[in-house]
Each structure stands twice: as C-alpha cells, then as structure tokens.
Amino acid sequence: MDSPLEELSIFMPMPTGSPPLDERFLSALYKGLIEAVFVIELNSRCLVYWNDGAAALFKYPESEILHQPVERLFADHSVSERVFAAALQQFSKNGAWRGECEYRRRNGSTFVAETTQSLLGTERGSYVVMIVRDISENKEREQVIHWLNEQLAARFSERASELIAKGNELEKAENQRRQTERLLEILMRNLTNNAILFLSPDGRVVHANSGTDHLLGYSAGEIEGIHLSRLFKSTPADPAKWNRMLEQAARQNSVRDYDWLMPKNGSYFSARVELLPLRGEADVVDGYLVLLRDDTEQKKVREQLREKEHLATIGTATAMLAHEIRNPLNGMSTTVQFLERSLQNDFEPTKEMVVSTVHDLKSEISRLQALLGDFHAISHPQQVNSLSVDLVELLRRLSSLVMPESLKQKIKIVEQFDGDLPRVWGDPDKLKQVFLNLVNNAFEAMPTGGTLTVKAYAARERVCIEIMDTGVGIPDGLNVFDLFRSTKAHGTGLGLAIARQIILAHHGTIDYSSQVGVATTFRVYLPANSSASE
C-alpha cells in the first residue's frame, strides 16, 4: 500500500517533462521547516505525517502521535469542531484556510497559534496539510501593549502638561545643540592660531581645522591619513611613542605634553600638545581630539619669569647670606683675637687650648664653605640634562646606597612602587641629589630609629614620589623651603631650597606635611611622559 506522502505526490500537478516528486523529497521539505507541519486524513481526522517542528512544539514524539485523532492537539473538542467547520467552508472556495486557535501540548499546557490548512485531494482520498506557528508570545506582547495603552490613556490627562514641558525642554536642548554645533563650526573655522585634529582610533588624521594650515603648512587634503607621530621632530619614524600617549589618554581622559612640532617645511618649534579621547556608545573610544598650540612665546615668558624669580631669590639669599656669614666671622675673629692677646702677653697656651682653638676655626671655616657652596648652587640656574629616567630603578639604587647608614641607625626602609610607573624626562643626577637630601633629612629626624617609606605612583598626568619618616616632625609655623631655615643644628638652611629649585627646573612641584612627634612626608610631583616609557 502506498504511503500518504506518495498519495499526496500523485495529486500535486507536475510540469510536463519534470520527474515526479518522491516521498523523500517531500519529507525533507517538511522537515526543513521551522513551523510545525502535520498531515491528517480528512475523513478520519487521524494524523498520518508529523515533522520535527511539530514534535518540538507539541512535545509528542512521532511514534506516539501518528494515527491518533487530531482532536488531541486542540484545547478541547469544541475548538476542533469549530476550526474544521470554518476550514471546510474555505476549502470549497479557495482550497485553504488561515486563522488562529488554541492548542494543547502533551504536558497539558495550552497556547495560541496561527494555523494554515490546505486541502489536498488524491484518487485515494483527501488530506489536510496543517502548518502551525506559535504566536503566544506575540499575544502576550499584544496584551502588554494593550494594557500599557490603557494605562497611558488613563494617565494622559494628568501627564499631558509634563509631556509638553518635557517636549519644550527637548526642543530647547535641540536648539542648544544646534547652536553649539554652529559655534563649534565657527570656532574650528576661525581658530587659526591652534591646530585642531581629529584622529582615528589608530592615530591617523581624519579631519583638521584651518589652523592646521596656518600652524603646520598642511592643507586638509594633505594632512588626512598622516599618523600623529609624523608631525613631531622627536621621533618622526617611530609611532610607538604616540600610540602609548593615545593609550594613556584613553585611560586618563586627557594627556598634556610639550614637544617639538615639525611643520611641512621641515623647521620645528616648541608646541603644547593635548590629547582627548572621543567616546561613543558603550564608552568605546571612537577617536581622539588633538589640540596643538605654538608654545614658543609662552616658553620664553616662562623662562623670563623663572629668571626673574631666580634673581629675586639671589637678592634675598645675598642679604640673608651676609647675615649668616657674620656669625661664623665673629667667632673666627674672637678666636684670632684670643690668639693675638696670648702672643702679645707672652702667654703660652696649652696644647689642648691650641687644638680646641684650631678646631673652632676649622669648624667655622667649614660652615662658611658649606654656605658659599650652597649659595653658589642656588645663585645659578639649574641646568637640567634631560634623559629618560626610570624612577623605580633610581630610587632602588638610592635605597642600596643608604642601606649601611639605615642599618647603623636601626631604620627600616619600605619600598612601595607601582608596577607600571611611567618614566619621566629629567636629569638623573639632579633628581638623585634631591631624593638623597630628603632621605638624609629623614634619617636625621629619626635619631633613635624608625621607618622610612618610599612610594612612587602615577597621579593623573604626573608621577608622585613620597618619602615619609616616623621622626620628630617639623614644628608648626616653620617653612623648611625658606632660605636659611633649618631644624638641624648644623644645617645651612639651603638644602631644601636647592631641592625645590631643581624640581621646578623639571616642571614639577615639591611639598610636605608633618605632625610633630609622629611623621613627616615629602611629596615630589614630576610630569609623567608616556613617550619615555619603554
């Protein structure tokens, strides 16, 4: 006996000369559909075909449902009768029926589905092909939407004024946005003294303002596609430096630096560079904004201000030095007068008296030499030989240098350094002089032992070095950076003033905090330069 699928294939019209459709082709066709497809014999209303989609939707395996009445799939008998009555009326008109009805799964749960029924007649009987698509989720969504619409309609009157006010706010915000865009366009067009570049995420120019032509000599067409690194003299063939700066800008939201900008004509000049990330959806960096400004005149002004400050410092130091020199000179004069009177009166001082007198003279001479040496250092501008400095390595070498003294004084040294600390541009010898001065001061503040903590960490666009002791502290009201101010009995009072001068020459700052009898912390801030990172 032929299978039902074979009977269906007999009924289907075939183009002349085409081979007949076989059962395997029809089975593959039905199995390829996502929707549930099953076939029933019209008279008995029993299932004769059941595809995988039907098994997945109704949870009936094929072996259990085949040759069973189709009523088992409907929510109840009345639904089944109503559906078939409506379908038979449509079959007589166009051979198919489409509608919605409620079905029941094997586990007893019901759902609403869209159903398409097609009548197929063969010589051996009539069959109905049913295609069922679950739309219960759509129905639920429609119910939710209907409920929301009802809620919205119920609350519309009371929220109408709020919606109108919100619309006014949005309109105002849109007007402000348009005005901002116009102002930005005007700014971009007229800000000719500054170059404004928009970069792609990999650092290539995608757009530039008219100031770029004025500052660099590149037209908009010429500069597009150029990597940021090619605009600078320092590393014209190495984009890695600027790629690191872009990464730093993405992490910190901005990076500012000074470098030698190289225009199209090959000359170069000092420029201030500021990088800002441009973020899109999900806070992803879509590109960068670069602001370039000729810093030549500002650099001259800064140098002139530093020179004026330096001259003022020299004037103050000179006046105070005269006062400081007077004391050791008076002591030396008194000692010499004592020797002179002793010789005139034929008084023969003992050996101990002579040794003591000579010791006093040497002590005062040493003090004068220290004063004059420090004054010479502070009276001349600090010459900084800038190199790429690894502060962690420098501080660790410094700890090794003072380790013997720390063991002698029973001082414990604790190091706390960031693992990815940026390098800086600076003079390693000058920086070592500053940190050694701070460490020595800390040792002298802990005569009975204690703990010296040395920290180094990134602080936005700077690197902070902290040197903290658990010593006697600094008295309130005393500014240790003032000239000739010292908490040490034999200090010149110029060491920290020189340290500050060195740090200022590195474009950094130095400050301190102290609590008498508890601890003192000195902090040195130096500009971080990601281009110095290796």
Task: Summarize this entry quickly.
This protein is α+β, with helices and mostly antiparallel strands and 534 residues long. It has 14 helices and 17 strands.
Label this structure with key terms.
single chain; 534 residues; alpha+beta; Beta-Lactamase; Helix Hairpins; 4 domains; 5-stranded antiparallel sheet; disordered N terminus
Overview of the molecule:
The structure is a single chain. The protein is of the alpha+beta class. It has four domains: 4-134, PAS domain (Beta-Lactamase, 2-Layer Sandwich), CATH 3.30.450.20; 191-294, PAS domain (Beta-Lactamase, 2-Layer Sandwich); 296-381, Helix Hairpins, CATH 1.10.287; 382-534, Heat Shock Protein 90 (2-Layer Sandwich), CATH 3.30.565. Helix content is 47%, strand content 24%. The protein has 14 helices and 17 strands. The protein has helices at 4-11, 23-31, 52-58, 62-65, 77-94, 136-190, 210-216, 220-223, 240-252, 296-344, 351-379, 391-408, 428-444, 495-505; strands at residues 36-41, 46-50, 96-104, 110-122, 125-134, 194-199, 205-208, 255-261, 269-279, 285-294, 387-389, 411-417, 424-426, 450-459, 462-469, 509-515, 519-527. The strands form four sheets. It has a five-stranded antiparallel beta sheet with strand order 2-1-5-4-3, with helices on both faces. Strands 7-6-10-9-8 form a five-stranded antiparallel beta sheet. A hairpin with a 2-residue loop joins strand 4 (110-122) and strand 5 (125-134). It is elongated and about 155 Å long.
